[in-house]
Design goal:
The structure is a single chain. Helices cover 24% and strands 25% of the residues. It has 389 residues and is of the alpha+beta class. It has an eight-stranded mixed β-sheet with strand order 12-13-15-14-16-17-18-19. Strand 16, helix 5 and strand 17 form a beta-alpha-beta unit. The N and C termini lie far apart (55 Å). 47% of the residues are buried.
Amino acid sequence: MKRVLILAAAASAGCWAQPAPDCQPAPSNAAGALYPCIHSDLRVTFRMVAPDAHKVLVSSNNTDGGIKGPIELVRDGSGAWSVTVGPVVPGFHYYWYVVDGIEVSDPSSESYFGHNKELSGVEVPEKGTDFYDVKDVPHGDVRTHWYRSKTTGAWRRAYVYTPPGYDRNANARYPVLYLQHGANENGSSWSRQGRAGLILDNLIAAGKAKAMIVVMETGYASQPTAPFGPAPAPAPAPAAAGSSPSAFERIVLDDLIPMIDGTYRTVADREHRAMAGLSMGGAQTLQITLSHLDKFSWIGCFSAPIRSFDAKTAYNGVFADAAAFNRKVHLLWIGAGTAETAMHDGAKTMHEALDKAGVKNVFYESQGTAHEFQTWRRDLADFAPRLFR
């Protein structure tokens, strides 16, 4: 532990070495940190100072267009280690260092919850793209809301985006989008890595989306007798007839929705309630909404793991009567990145089967992006303007 702390302190000192003129500090860096820095051609330079280390690597999850680690850094005469990688696909990418076999976060980076732990992250700006940037427009708030779950008997934390003007317009009521993260992330992921609040701020300011409340909860739950911890991603397949809902499904229906409707100025009916999610959250969204169309009429599925799909039997036959489904559901939105092959193929299969069955749906492809937040930012930017129209 002592050695890791010493290395972390040394790495922090390394942020002050001036980068090359064309290399700008990443927007995701800790305040004042110069590295990682982004070159004009989208290469990324990583640097840390660890004079007593024997080997330093930079690594990532390798599931997106980011750093394809582990990549070995090169030591200079002052004890600083560095490497330039890429070009890297624009967007947000997790990374960490491996110092003499020990995984450590980069103290020059902000921390983001992913892979079921706090990690470093590098934001690579996409040229000509600003829909998730901070702009000179009215801004909403992301509030941390603790509440007691009757389902689990434990305290839970939801992140709640309230739109610009929420506190001033005391008589206004708002529709609600429940927005879920992916596996091994948590309720903070959409607002931090995904920049959901900024996306909504910009869409609302431009008149492209209705003002709405967005609720972001952590998608893991256990019954009181079970230990708390991340749950495996639920398969996007119909629940068996008469089967019990998952603990998280019960939380959404019995705890979360009543708490939000009782605390915030919502329009508390299915016509003004949406749910969407990415990856695991997309699978959870399909299972919860399609099993409870009395609660939801707007549905978004971002990069869910859809391995097979039969429109006649899926989700206990909810699509079997296409006309009835189309009357109940205002929007069924399905999307994926073209570079996340398995997720894209599954989404396209579902879309084509629904089209053939006469079920209205929207299919969106994020060009060139993989299983990563750049895909899901684009998804949200296309999905949100369609809601509550």
